[in-house]
Amino acid sequence: MTIKHADEYRDPDISRKLVEQITNLSKTKIRLMEVCGTHTMSIFRNGIRNLIPETISLLSGPGCPVCVTAQNEIDAFIEISQKPDTIITTFGDLMRVPGTGSSLQKERAGGKDIRMVYSTFDAIEIARKNPDKKVIFLGVGFETTAPTVAASILSARDMKIDNYFVYSAHKTVPLALFALMKTEGIKIDGFLLPGHVSVIIGTGAYLPFFNQFQMPCVVAGFEPSDILQAILMLVEQTENKTPGLENAYTRAVSFEGNEKAVRIMNDVFEPADVAWRGIGIIPGSGLKIRDEFSDYDAMKKFEITEKDSKEPNGCACGEILTGLKTPVECPLYKKICTPVDPVGPCMVSSEGTCAAYYKYHSSD
Amino acid sequence: MCLAIPSKIVKIENNIGIIDVDGVQRTASLLLLEDPKVGEYVIVHAGFAIKKIDEEAAMETLMVLREALAFAEKEKPDA
Ligand code: SF4
């Protein structure tokens, strides 16, 4: 059975044709950054790095939510998990990220109640069924996830559930692009903008960035021909010297985005200055829970103050997230740091660049 | 983290949709959508439908991709 709106974009003939067009057109050496972990995975899984001509290098940017979560946030998660009478809920990838001296997985092995959920509604359900426990959802992710977490807080309020809390470590993408451009040594000639973040915020949200830097930017979907089409558009912009902010994922992304989701996100969260792994503090790029909803704010409820935690010794995640290094340039890669025994989050997360290299990159 | 495959809404009850991806059914919250309807295709993220697929745009993209392909076939010297 065919899956509508997916199979067609996997047609190998279409992909081959796109590769041919890219190869014919691409003359200038360019470095393109994909700012989305799901793109990174799709690019590796479909062997796109090997299909495109040598003129084009693809870099993975700060698009894996777990990877950009700062060490102090990871340590805060662990601190919360150690509080009595709590049930911690989170998406899977966060479990194994090493904090300073522990991880959620280790805490769970030590008897703490830490559960993986599929959606925030599962967390609400756990709260409803365990009225004597405090149920905390650890929220990491970008504008794709933040509205779903905001909706869970609104639902908890509607359902009068008072034992549900959120620790918000969410981050927003457009401001990170500005920060990336200021990173010393950075060399990027174009951006493959994230598909599902853009579903929510719309292409319009990148206009201030594009207007300032006049850098080729194309929003891409996740199927092979979506990504190849976006690369072709970036190459066209480069060769014709007509940088633009374009959309190669029109079936899902509009200029305005999902305005209802944005409204819900903004009702519950407000911008905050937060640290990103590898980039440092980016003013206004975090989402903290508004005072109006402070009853649901785990940071306030458990009086967590984020400490000045150090990132794991020798881990190059930070430089990898900004495209300054590739995993093979990290001395720990494959030697000490493996998916089974990861040192940094880029090796833990299924979307992390180090994990993707480990799985698909064979030449080293 | 992002599930790329669109799902079809087959049933709606209290803002919860039963969605179908290739015969597998699960539930998704429809709270983030404006006016969801049975039969529409949506993108689902972490248990929430976050966007309806724009059918017209989907067809248009495919047409452009296929046209390019057909053109390429014609251009081949042995064709
Ligand atoms: S290989 Fe491991 S230690 Fe090196 S950057 Fe990646 S996650 Fe960090």
What does this structure look like?
The complex is a heterodimer of chains A (364) and B (79). With 364 residues, chain A is of the alpha/beta class. Chain A folds into two domains: 1-300, HypD, alpha/beta domain 1 (Rossmann fold), CATH 3.40.50; 317-357, no CATH class. Chain A has helices at residues 12-25, 37-45, 48-51, 65-68, 71-81, 104-109, 120-129, 146-158, 173-182, 195-201, 207-213, 224-239, 259-268, 298-301, 317-321, 345-348, 353-360; strands at 30-34, 56-60, 86-90, 114-116, 134-139, 164-168, 170-171, 190-193, 217-219, 245-247, 269-276, 280-289. In chain A, α8 links the parallel β5 and β6 (164-168). In chain A, α2 packs parallel to α17 (353-360). Chain A starts with 11 loop residues before the first helix and ends with a helix. The mean pLDDT of chain A is 92. By secondary structure, chain B is an alpha+beta fold. Chain B has one helix and five strands. Chain B has one helix at residues 55-75; strands spanning 7-13, 16-21, 24-29, 41-45, 48-52. Chain B has a five-stranded antiparallel sheet, with no helix packed on it. In chain B, a hairpin with a 2-residue loop joins β4 (41-45) and β5 (48-52). The N and C termini of chain B lie far apart (43 Å). Classes of the chains: A alpha/beta (364), B alpha+beta (79). The interface between A and B is large, with 53 and 35 residues. Residues 315-317, 320, 327, 330, 332-333, 337, 343-344, 346-347, 354 of chain A line the site of iron/sulfur cluster. The site of iron/sulfur cluster has 14 residues of chain A, from α15 and α16.
Protein topology:
The complex is a heterodimer of chains A (364) and B (79).
Chain A (H helix, E strand, L loop, with lengths): L11 H14 L4 E5 L2 H9 L2 H4 L4 E5 L4 H4 L2 H11 L4 E5 L13 H6 L4 E3 L3 H10 L4 E6 L6 H13 L5 E5 L1 E2 L1 H10 L7 E4 L1 H7 L5 H7 L3 E3 L4 H16 L5 E3 L11 H10 E8 L3 E10 L8 H4 L15 H5 L23 H4 L4 H8 L4
Parallel strand pairs in A: 1-2, 1-8, 3-4, 3-5, 5-6, 8-9, 9-10
Antiparallel strand pairs in A: 7-12, 11-12
Chain B lengths: L6 E7 L2 E6 L2 E6 L11 E5 L2 E5 L2 H21 L4
Antiparallel strand pairs in B: 1-2, 1-4, 2-3, 4-5
Bound molecules: iron/sulfur cluster.
The site of iron/sulfur cluster (SF4) has 14 residues of chain A, from α15 and α16.
